[in-house]
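Final report, Chapter 2: Outcomes

The project's central promise was a pipeline that accepts a single protein chain and returns its three-dimensional structure in a standardized token representation, suitable for archiving and comparison. That pipeline is now operational. To close this chapter, we reproduce one record exactly as it appears in the project archive, with the input sequence first and the structure output second.
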Amino acid sequence: MFKDSFIARISSILAVICLVAVIVISDLLRSTPVAGLSLPPPSRLLALGEEYSLPFLKGLRLNHSDPFALDFIVDSADLDKVEQEHIQCLISYFLAGLTTPDEDLWVNLSPNESDRVLAPDLETTDLGRDMLAQDYVLKQLASSLTHPDTETGKAYWANAGVGAIRESPLQADESKIWIVPDKAEVYEQGTTAVITAASLKLQCEDESQQVLLSAITKDVNEGRNFANLRQIYHSLILAKWFKTKLKDSLYAAYIDQHKLKGINTSDPALKEKIFGLYVQSFKKGVYDVIRGAGANNHSPLQERRRFFPGAPCSANRWL
């Protein structure tokens, strides 16, 4: 049933106040997370990623004889060996999702909303940092795919209309593109829950961006660019199942209670760094090119067009 998976067991003794200790070993959570901050620079074109997956939480098993212990089922994906740091990070996503209300599981990259980038407290967690980083990658990829020399770019600019192509760079292109859950299914057998379906889809509010969605959707669900996002999504699916299944149990004091002590291991300044990269991309664009017969001379009889993308903005919600 669990081919290419293995069981990761975590347990601890009951702490008086911090219920996090009921779920995991505190030392495990305080280790350096595996998912570091490695993002493409604002001016670099980003290509669609090849198929690739990182380890993710496939399921979990409750232990009725020891309610203070959980078994996590970890799928090794495309790795031959899963390091302990990977497991630590996946569990930190799960725990942050467990104690954060669903309505607070969002990120927002918009140049005019520097005060509304992440829900309160999430900026100190690996979950918030990595959600925001993946949203930045989404913006970079969407902008890169509009390059006029690509097939998606040609279709995009054709649909964008005459007003989208000017002699000077576009200003404040606030078209929105965002990721939403598509399918999330959990199979239960006894005390074990296993994720059997986990897919994401994209939405946009600008008709010209429709040509980008199919390419990005495939990358989001299968590609290297969003392998970390799929890790996050699986952890949040299990957290949602746990919340629903055990909302009236002893875990109720932890579920949706913003109890992040022990998992608030991320530097909150990273939020500002990611937002700063996004603003640079928004202002300068991942490309700025001139195309047309007049690109190499100044003949008034030949057309000269300048293509400049404003990075799209959005508010992504993951559950």
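Archive annotation: Residues 5-292+305-317 form one domain.
This record, like all others produced under the grant, will remain available to the consortium after the project formally closes.
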